[in-house]
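Narrative of activities, Objective 1.

The group set out to show that a structural description can be obtained from nothing but a protein's sequence at a throughput compatible with the screening campaign. Below is one input-output pair from the validation batch, recorded exactly as produced.
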Amino acid sequence: MQQIKGWLLIALVSMVPACAVSDGDQDGAQYAGSASPGDTGSDDGDGGGSGEIGALPGETNGGSEGAGGTGAEGVTLTTGCPAYHNDVYSPYIGYGDVSTGTPAVLPWRGVAGTYPDAVEDFRAYSAGQQIECGANKNARDYLDVTAGCLKAVSKNGNAAGEIHGTSVSEGYYRSLALPYDSEHERAAAWTDLGVEYKFFYSQWTSNVSGPGFKIFARYLSEYDLYVGSWRQDGVVQIQKKQCGVYTVLQRNSHFGPPAPNMWHTIRFEVQGNEQRLYLDGQLAMTTHDDSIKTGTAGIRIDSAESSLIDDWKVYAP
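Output recorded for this entry:
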């Protein structure tokens, strides 16, 4: 089957300008190659996506078949927001309905095979092999690097991924999982999910857009998502972004930054209306919000050029 890099996302009204953005974080430059309008860059920022979001009538946000199975009928995803400009990135662009459920019934797998089968540990790549770049988003069918590049490396004899930002001065990196339901031959959107990855960095290489390590859950578009963050300035927080507007659900401004030159783990679980952020195995905060029902998972890293990532996994909490 030909690789498909985007799937269907439908908004509620005909094309109008995107919602205004309210952001309590540091402003950040646009991703290289992105034409996204007016997003001042919180802990997710803009993306260099392709394709456009349709503008047909739709259901309420995240209509779901439930966590128990995918069913024969697909679900049409909607944001519940006025339709966006066609340069607002979403991994759900194209044609056809999607399957919804937890990663237990819809594990993270690509179109052509079962890899990564829930965990990207870079076992499929040799050291130095380019995995994907934002400038060539069709290299892999199970993930979408929308900003920067990802390549495989060896760290102390173990496989890992090395990220490179859009530039040293900007330093944006972002990638999203692209889950696929092979039984029904369509994209998948997760309901309750956990996402986790390990990271290792040596130094901060610039100071834009709240430098740090971020993690996405229920990512529907760059304007509709949940994001957990562990930042250079010591801020730890959970935010939602809906219709392009940020809301801080909880923030700890005095948690402290991750230490350099050692491995850390960041984990984010969204279950029902509860969001839980774990740092190095410890629960850092819990919030509650039920705005966004389905989506995918992903990673964003700002201003930490050549950082390593490993054991990026998506699971049912």
